[in-house]
């Protein structure tokens, strides 16, 4: 089985490799066709599907995987949200979302000003490349859950549903 993941972010690639061991995993940079910082479940999920679809255009004999990070509101509270999608060559679409945690007001304020969460997190944590490492979820859970672990769970949900429904 060959999988093509629409991102060069190592946390996303590793998540696919964790759940599809022994399979070929290719990574490509593809557009999400949504805002760099999605602001709802709908937009984040759409980004994941678009990434999977565009990946599949590059290697049609593979299974396309898209993983997308975003934020969304529950009432007034901003949450981190993440979505994943598998798209098959017969255009079957499977989606799942990941764990969500509340984000502090100061993060919300900076996102509203137009900054991307990855950049905001680097400044907040005084680190470089949070998005490629522990992620916002790692910072705000005292490293109990890393971005890779969160995406691994999303890919697990995708693989499980894909096996059930196909
Ligand atoms: O190269 P790609 O695949 O685009 O990886 P990315 O890190 O930019 O991730 P996304 O585009 O999926 O996420 C959208 C934005 O939200 C940021 N983001 C999402 N989840 C994050 C997290 O847990 N930690 C830090 N930044 C995060 C990310 O850096 C982007 O600015
Ligand atoms: Mg991005």
Automatic annotation (TrEMBL):
Pfam families: NTPase_I-T (PF01931). It catalyses: ITP + H2O = IDP + phosphate + H(+); XTP + H2O = XDP + phosphate + H(+). Its EC number is 3.6.1.73. Coiled coil: none annotated. Its cofactor is Mn(2+); Mg(2+). Keywords: Hydrolase, Magnesium, Manganese, Metal-binding, Nucleotide metabolism, Nucleotide-binding. Residues 6-155 form the Non-canonical purine NTP phosphatase/PRRC1 domain. Gene3D superfamilies: 3.90.950.10. This is inosine/xanthosine triphosphatase. It comes from Virgibacillus byunsanensis.
């Amino acid at each position: 089985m060959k999988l093509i993941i629409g991102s060069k972010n190592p946390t996303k690639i590793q998540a696919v490799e964790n759940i599809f061991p022994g399979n070929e995993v290719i990574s490509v940079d593809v557009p999400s066709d949504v805002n760099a910082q999605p602001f709802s479940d709908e937009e984040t999920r759409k980004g994941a599907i678009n990434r999977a679809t565009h990946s599949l255009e590059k290697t049609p004999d593979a299974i396309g995987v898209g993983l997308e990070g975003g934020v969304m509101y529950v009432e007034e509270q901003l949450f981190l949200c993440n979505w994943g999608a598998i798209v098959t060559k017969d255009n079957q679409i499977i989606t799942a979302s990941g764990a969500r945690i509340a984000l502090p007001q100061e993060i919300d304020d900076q996102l509203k000003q137009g900054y991307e969460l990855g950049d905001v997190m680097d400044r907040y944590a005084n680190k470089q490349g949070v998005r490629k490492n522990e992620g916002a979820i790692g910072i705000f859970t005292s490293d109990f859950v890393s971005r890779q672990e969160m995406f691994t769970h999303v890919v697990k949900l995708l693989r499980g549903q894909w096996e059930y429904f196909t």
